[in-house]
Structure to design on (240 residues):
């Protein structure tokens, strides 16, 4: 049994909650406009939001540290208690991803996105930035990893990785990876797309075997895909 699949199934067992989840109506959110310029990370945090994570690194090869920020809404109206964990409310507050490039005397906002990091809308969902999820600067590129697991209503678990490179004041998608494990059937599917050479590798297999079926394809289009083109990660899939 392969290690990645063992990890996913172990996480699934550890996070299971009663199947009859206490559901709630998640309020709509008006996403604020962020400041276009700022002296530091806090300059881009709007009222009613908090700075959850700040990452520094060079994203545009000018040897200056740029900012990648994960902003988290802090509205108490988006916290919901459950019967099985009344002391730990489900936090449905949404997040925003912001990128600000270093310029003389401060930073300039170039990305303000509230779709790529999904909002939790159910008590059965895990935090998309927990476990194998997260936001980082890796080898000069922006890497966003989205984890997914639900203790009820679905048997799939896994993660999606989006890698972006700064080009012409936009963040272009250069790499996409998704590994999905079905906890019921044991089926594993891994899709890896390189948007620079347009090569897509699809691996299918099972947790019971280390042998995969490997298929190689080409992306249908050579068009540039930016971070704003992704939308919600669940709905995105490379076309090949």
């Amino acid at each position: 049994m392969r290690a990645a699949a063992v990890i996913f199934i172990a996480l699934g067992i550890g996070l299971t909650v009663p199947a009859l989840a206490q559901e709630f109506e998640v309020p709509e959110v008006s996403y604020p406009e962020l400041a276009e310029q700022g002296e530091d990370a806090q300059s881009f945090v709007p009222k009613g939001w908090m700075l959850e994570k700040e990452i520094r690194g060079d994203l545009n090869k000018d040897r200056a540290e740029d900012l990648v920020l994960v902003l988290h809404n802090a509205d108490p109206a988006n916290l919901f208690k459950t019967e099985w964990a009344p002391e730990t409310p489900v936090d449905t507050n949404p997040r925003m991803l912001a990128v600000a490039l270093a310029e003389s005397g401060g930073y300039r906002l170039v990305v303000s996105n509230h779709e790529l990091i999904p909002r939790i809308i159910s008590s059965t969902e895990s935090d998309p930035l927990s476990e194998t999820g997260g936001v980082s600067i890796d080898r000069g590129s922006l890497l966003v990893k989205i984890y997914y697991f639900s203790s009820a209503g679905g048997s799939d678990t896994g993660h999606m990785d989006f890698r972006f490179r700064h080009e012409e004041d936009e963040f272009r998608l250069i790499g996409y990876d998704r590994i999905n494990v079905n906890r019921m059937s044991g089926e594993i599917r891994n899709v890896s797309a390189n948007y620079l050479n347009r090569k897509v590798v699809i691996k299918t297999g099972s947790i019971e075997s280390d042998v995969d079926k490997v298929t190689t394809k080409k992306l249908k289009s050579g068009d540039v895909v930016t971070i704003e083109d992704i939308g919600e990660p669940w709905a995105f899939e490379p076309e090949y």
User: Anything to note?
Assistant: The longest strand covers residues 170-182. Residues 17 and 85 are 10 Å apart (CA to CA). Residues 3-21 have pLDDT under 50 and may be disordered.
